[in-house]
Protein 1
Amino acid sequence: MKKLLDQITEEAAKAFEACGYAGEYGRVTLSNRPDLCEYQCNGGLAAAKVYRCAPIQIAEKVVEELKKSSVFQEAVAVNPGFINLKLSPDFVQAYLQKMAEDVRLGCDKAENPKTIIIDYGGPNVAKPLHVGHLRSAIIGESVKRLGRFAGHKVIGDIHLGDWGLQMGLIITELKYRKPDLVYFDAGYTGEYPKEAPFTISELEEIYPAASTRSKEDKAYKEEAMEATYLVQQGHRGYQAVLEHILQVSVADLKKNYANLNVEFDLWKGESDAQPYIPDLTAMLKEKGYAYESEGALVVDVKEETDTKEVPPCMILKSDGASLYTTTDLATIVERMKLYHPDEIIYVVDKRQEMHFVQVFRCARKTGLVEDDTRLTFLGFGTMNGKDGKAFKTREGGVMRLEHLIADINEEMYRKIADNPEIGEDEARETARMVGLSAIKYGDLSNQASKDYIFDMERFTSFEGNTGPYILYTIVRIKSILHKYQAMGLDPKAGRIGVPGNETQKALMLELAAFNAAVENAFEELAPHKICAYIYELANTFNKFYHENKILGEENQEVRDSLIAVSLLTMQVLETCIDILGFEAPKRM
Ligand code: ARG
C-alpha cells in the first residue's frame, strides 16, 4: 500500500503543478504544531526563491487548488508561507479500511528480495554468557526479524568464538585434573567416548580457573598455547576434547538463547573458517596485496581521506599464526561461496569498529566480495549499571545472563502475583513474557550505538516508555475484544467507519503511519524506531480508550467501527513486538 504521506504528497504536488510550480515543492510532512494541523507543506517557502514572489502568495494559490481535493478537509495558508493541512474523514476511513483488509497491514514486501547474513550473538564457547552478549543477541534478532518482515531472505549466524587460546586452556586444565582420560594417552588409537568428561557447570568453572592460572604461571600458559596449536593442527585426542567442549557449550547456549526468544539459522563458528585460510593467504601473496612487515604478513588498508590512522590489516603473525582478522576474512570467503549474500551485517560491540574497518576494506580491496556486496557494521554501545559503569553483579562481578533474566522474572512475578485471579503457573509464565519485554524493550528503545543504563525498576514499570506498558496496552485491547466476543459478536466482522472525534482520528492517523515506520526502521537498521512508533501508538490508543465508550457505545455501527480500530491497533502492536522479539500474554 502506498504510504499515507506519499499519497498526500502526491496530492499536494499536483496542486503545485496546477498552479504552474514544480511538483517537488509539494512535499508534505507530519505537523510540528499538532494543535493547529495534522500535516504541513513548507514548499511555498522554497518555491518563492525560484519563482521570485512572496511565499504566502504561492501558499494561497496552492491552497485554492488543495480545497478542490477530496483528500483534505482543511487547507490553510499561514504566514510566512506554510500550508497547514487536515485530512478528510472519508479519506482516512478508506485508507484504514484498506489497511485492515490487507494481511500485511499495508506493508509491501520488498520487490527485489536480498540475501542478507546477520552475524550476531558471537558468544565464546566455554565461557558463560554474560550481559555483554545480550545486546548483540537482542539487536541482531530484531534486525533479522525486521529484514524478514520486509521480505528479504535473512540468515542469522551465531559465529561462535570457538578458535582461541580458551580451547588450549581448557584442554591443559583438564589434563592436570584428569590425566588418566584417554584423550591424553598418546598411544590410544580406539574410538573416543561419546559422553563428555565434564558438565557445563564444570566447564564454566574450569575455564576461569585455567585463565587465572595462566596469568600467574608462565609454563602453564606455554602448555596451553602448545595445546591450542596442537588442536588447531588436528591432534586427535585434543580434537575429541574440543568436540566435547562444543557439544556441551552449544547445548547450554541453545537453552539460554531460547529463553531470550533468539534463534539462529546457522551455528557456525570461527573454526569453520580455518580451512579457507591457506588458500586465502596464498592468494593475497600471489596477487601482491600482502607483504611482510616485521615478519608478519599484512595488507595496507589506509585511505587518503582517513582522519584517523587505520593500521595495516594483519593476516599472519610472525610465527605464522592467524588472527581474529584472518578468521573474519576467511568467514567472508566461506559466506560468499555458500550463500552469496548481497549484504552481511555484523552486530558487534562498537569498540570493535576499527577491526571491521580493516576487515571490510581488506575484503573489498582484495576482491573477496563483489563491488555491490554490502558490508555493514552495526556497532552497539555498552549496557551500564545505574552508576554509569559497565553492568555488574551486586558483588561487583560480571553479571551472567541467566541471573539477570532470573532477577527480572522474579521482579515481574512479584508484581503479577498481586492479581488474585491469576494462578501460580500462569503468573510464572506471564512473568517470563513480561520480563523478556522489559529487557528487550529496555535495550531496543535506545539507539543501538549509544550506551544505556540498565534500570530494572524503570524497565519493569507498567507505565512510561517500557515493554510492560506496551504489553499492558495489548492486553487491554484483548480484554475489550474478549468482552465483545462474549456478547456474541465477531470483532473481525466490523468495518472501520469515519472518525467521529479527535481521539478517534488521532488513533487512525497513527495506525496509518505503520508501513512508513517499519520501512524506515529497516532502512536504517534501527529497531528503536519501531519502539518509538509503538510507544506513540500505545499512548494514542490509551487516550482513545479513555475518551470513548467502546463497548458501551449505543450506535452499533459506531461501536463496531471502534472495535475494528481497536483490533487493528492490537494487530499492529503485536506485529511490532514480534519484530522486536517478544510476545504478549493473554492477561496480566
Ligand atoms: N566472539 C566475539 C566477541 O566476543 C564476537 C564475534 C563478532 N563477530 C565477528 N564476525 N567477529 O568479541
Protein 2
Amino acid sequence: MDSIIKPDLSGFENTIRDYVRYVLGKPMTDATSTDLFNGVSSAVRKLLMDIRIETEQRYDRRDVKRMHYISMEFLTGPLLANNLLNMGIQEDVRAILKNMGLDLDILMACEPDPSLGNGGLGRLAACFLDSLASLDMPGFGYGINYDYGLFKQSIMGGYQREKPDYWPSRSSPWLIARSGEKCMVPVYGRIVDTEDIEGGYNPMWSEWKLVVGRPHDIPVVGYGGHTANRLRLFSAWASEDFDIQIFNEGDYFRAVERKISSENISKILYPSDSQEAGRELRLVQEYFLVACAVQDIIRIYLKQHDDFNQFSKKVAIQLNDTHPALTVAELMRSLVDVHGLEWDNAWDITTQTLAYTNHTLLPEALEKWPLAIVEKVIPRHLQIIYEINRRFLETLTVNYPDDPQRLHRMSIIEEGDEKQVRMAHLAIVGSHSVNGVAKIHSHLVKTGLVPDFYDLWPEKFNNKTNGVTPRRWLLSANPGLARLITESIGDKWIVDLDTLKALESLGRDPAFLEKFSMIKRENKVRLARLIKKTAYIDVDPDSIFDIHAKRIHEYKRQFLNVMHIIHGYFMIQEEGVIPTAPRTYIFSGKAAPGYFLAKLLIRLIHGVADVVNKDPLVSQWIKVAFIPDYKVSLAEIIIPGADVSEQISTAGMEASGTGNMKFAINGAVTMGTMDGANIEIAEAVGPDNIYIFGHDVEEIQAMRGAYDPGKILAQSPHIQRVLNAVNSPLFCGWENDLFFPLFDAVVNHGDYYMNLADFQSYVDAQVRLSGDYVDKKKWAQMTLLNTARTGIFSSDRTIREYAGEVWGLERQI
Ligand code: 26V
C-alpha cells in the first residue's frame, strides 16, 4: 500500500476562525454547532481542492482514459467523517478542535444526509466513487442536484408520514458551484424537415426551449489522500434570467412562470422504483442529466483532442440502470448533428463507449416511455431512436430471416395500443457491455429477461457482483471493530479487504473472540440508545438483535418477518413455548408514498409492536421496534449493531442486495433466501455460518402458475392462526379491518411473493438460529467468520473487475 499523504494542517484552525468571522460575519463566541460544522468542512474542503487540482493535472498530463458513471441517484450520506478518514487526518483534526474547545463528534452530528437516492442503486453509485478514488482511477460521477432529496419519514400513530427533505443543495460546504461550465439543453419544440445543399434530408429541431444545467461539484477523495475525483451534479436553470422574447412582448409574469417551470426539473427526486405511466417530468429529468453529462464529457475530451478518432479509447460511460439510457440517442445526436460525423462512425464510437448495468428484473420497474411523451419532450431523439431501431431490425432480419415474432420481441419500439420505447432494449443495442449485479441475477438477465439479446450477442453479457466500500461501512461505521482488526492483522484490509481472511485463525483464540463479542455488544448498546431516542422503546442489548433494514417492498417480504413474530407471540402466549433466546426485532425503511400495501405494512409492524411490547410475558422474550427515517447516517449505527441480518426476498427478485454485504462484513449472521448476492455470501462464509431457507429460484419458477397458497393455509394451523390475527382487531384495535388488504393479498390473491410457501422453512431456520445463539462460543466464531470471509464484497473488487473487463481503466498513481 502506498503510504498515506497527510495534508498540511498548519492553517486549519485559522481557516475555521476566518470562515466564522468573514463568511458568516460572527464572532467565534456566537457560532452554533452547525456554523462550526460548516467552518470545519470548509477547512477540509480547502485541503480537498489541493488534491483535486493535482489529480486533474496528473490526468491531463497523461491524457488518461476516464470513466463517467451516469446515475439519477447518488446516495452519499454525510461526508465529513469519510473525508477526514480517507485523508488520514481524523485524529489530528479531533485534536485541533479539542484544543479550540470543540468536539468533532458533536460537529459531525450536525451534518445532514444528502439523500439523493432511493436505496441500493444510489448507494452503490456512492460506494463506486469511493473505490475509484481509493484505487487512484479516473472515474467520475454525473447526477442531478435535486433541491429535495428522498422524503423524510416520520411515524404518527403507526403510519408513515412524509415530509420534504430540503437539504442545503445550494449551500452545502461540499458543493462547489461551477457557473463557468454551464451546459445548454434544448428541450420540447418540433422537427422541421429541410434539405441540405446537396438535397439530403436535413431535419431541423426548432422552437425548443433552452434549459441551463449548472454544475455543482462534490470532491471525492480516495483513501490515502492521493487522488480526488469529482461527482458533478447539475441544477436546472432557465436560460437567461427570463425568457427574453416573452419578456419583450410585455408578458412579465409568463416570463417568470417559464423560468420557474425550467427550474422544476431538478426540484425533486422521484421516490419510487415503479414507473407510473406518463410522468413527463421524470423523462425530462433523465434527458436533462444525459444532455448535460454528454456535453460535459465531450467538452473535456475536446480539450485534448481535435477529432473523435480517440473518443472510445479515452472515454468510457457506464449507465446506472436504464434511467440514463437516452445517452445512446444523445451521444449519437451530438456526434452526428453537432459534430458532423457520419452515422456509422458515430454508431461505432457510441457502442464502444457505452456500457449498461441492469439492477432489477421486476416488470414494474422496467422503464418504458410512451412515444407521445418522448416526441413531445425530445422530438429529435425520437427520430434518432427510430433510425437506430430501423438499422437494428435490418440486421435482425439477416440473422433471423424467418422469425418475425423475434423481431417484435426485440424491437426498441413496443407495438400495441400505446406504442412505447423500451429503454432496456435501447441501452442493450447501444452498449458493448451489459451486466447484472450478482451471479444469479446476471444469469436471469440472460435467460429470463432478454434471452433473445443473449442469443444474438452472448459476448456482450457479463456479471459484476456488487460490493460496498470498507472505508464507510467498516472503518468509519464500526471504529471499535476496525481498531481491533488493525491491532490484530495490520491495516492493509482498508485497501485490500481480502486480507480479513487472516482473522480466521483467531477464531481459536478465546481472548480474541471475547474482544470481538464485546465490540458487538458495545455497538448494540449504541443502537439501543438510538432505538430509545427515535422509537421510544427500551430494548435489551443482550437479546438477539434481528434487523430488517431496507426499503419496504412486498418482494423484500417484511410481511414474512412479521408473520414469524406473530407466530412467536402465539407460541409463548397460547402454547407456553418459550424461545431459546430473547430477541429484538428491528425494522427500518421507507415505503414509497404511493405504495399502499407497503405503507400498511409499516402500520402493521407498529400494531404488532404495540401488542407484543406491552404484553408482560411475551415482552420478556420478544420486542419489536421500528426506527424511522432509514438513511445512510442511521445505517452506519444500525448495521454494526446487528446479530442477525434479514435478507429474505422471494428468490429471483432481489437483484443483488448490498445491505446483506454490509451486515455480513460487520459480523452479523445472515438469515436469507437463495437470492441475489446472498448466494455468493453463502458460498463465501460456508453453509455452517449462514441460515439459508426457502425455495430457490428454480423451485419458485417451477411453482409459478400452479402455486396455491390456500392449500398451504389449509394444512397449517400455525399459519391460520397468524393470518387470522392479522385480519382481526388484535393489532388494529378500533380501526376495523385495517389489515385486511395484507391478509387478502396472501389468502385471496395468490400470494404472489410466496410468503406462505417459505413460512415453515423460515420458522425452522429461526429456531435453529436461536439455539445456536445461546452457545456463545459457537456464535462468536460464526460471526467472526462472517467478517473474515466477506472481503470479496468490497466495492474495490467490483471496480477492479469493471475497470479491467469493461472500461479499460488504469490506476494513475
Ligand atoms: C426505477 C425507477 C423507475 C422510475 C422512477 C424512479 C425509479 C427509481 C429506481 C428504479 C429502479 C431501482 C432498481 C434498484 O434500485 N435496484 C437495486 O439495485 C441494487 C444495486 O445494484 C441492488 O443491490 C438491489 O438488489 C436492487 O433492487
